[in-house]
Amino acid sequence: MTLDRHAPEAEIAKAVGAFSNWGRWGEHDVLGTLNFLDEAKRRQGAGLIRRGASFSLSQSFDMDGPQRGWRRRTNPVHTMLDTGVEASLGIQGFPHGLGGADDVIAMPLQCSTQWDGLGHIFDHGKAWNGRSAAEVVTSAGDQVTGIEHMAAQVAGRGVLLDVGRHLGEGGELPDGFAITEEHLRSTAAAQNVLVGRGDIVTVRTGQLARARREGWGEYAGGPAPGLSFTSAGWLHGTEIAAVATDTWGFEVRPNEFEHAFQPLHQVAIPHIGLLIGEMWDLDALAEDCVADGVYEFWLTAAPLPITGAVGSPVNPVAVK
């Protein structure tokens, strides 16, 4: 797939015409590509557990995270409501010496490891499955495809494509590296793993490892390796259920067109119906995959069932 880098509108329209899943699961669908992740796929994923080794694929949720305030995205603010101090002073009001601690957190739902829901991105005023964006997401939230519909769905066969190790230097791709279908296929072949219908695919670029070593810098919104716009056909044709990366924006930045912003999102979410994860921590899992040569595993990554949300924090857990 070649791109006219001066014509993002035309290229997006071309990809939409080729890869749209509108109507594929009926006019009332709210799951998109998660429809590919069926009971048989979950049984297959569960059968991959051999050793019982588990890996959290989540970054921390704290004030030391990567957010810089763009679009009012801030790092989480964690506040204690009751502590051991109050308990020790006996001012909590509980009988017979009982004490406790409570806390609260305030944060954007997409400030750290997270899923982009189907109501997160629109194309020319249209949301997933051809619905009017104005009728789907209002000030009351996503009235149709809220993330809560996916709460029981995201568990099955996970696959790691460690493109950073396969093609990068020192296990890391440079910022601006566009991962094409050829790159994804060659990585899968090198790792002797197949990618197909219903899989939850994780793509490691190595950018998170670099950010942890050198500081966050522009990790949230700045230059990054990521999927090329030309990978849209692979995302559609493989019939994967979801995809997640270790980067802030999933696709390569700067984007591959002049005067464009996240064009692959514009195809993948409202048209393909693809669940997209961002800022996943794949480093420890990748080290284990290198050690045992196995790049498939059971993966559970349920979003919080926040009614009407267009995204959700997540603590994905891979088990091998």
Automatic annotation (TrEMBL):
Any Pfam family hit: Cyclase
Gene3D superfamilies the UniProt entry points to: Putative cyclase
PANTHER family for this protein: CYCLASE, PTHR34861
UniProt-recorded name of the protein: Cyclase family protein
Organism listed in the record: Streptomyces durocortorensis
Lineage: Bacteria, Bacillati, Actinomycetota, Actinomycetes, Kitasatosporales
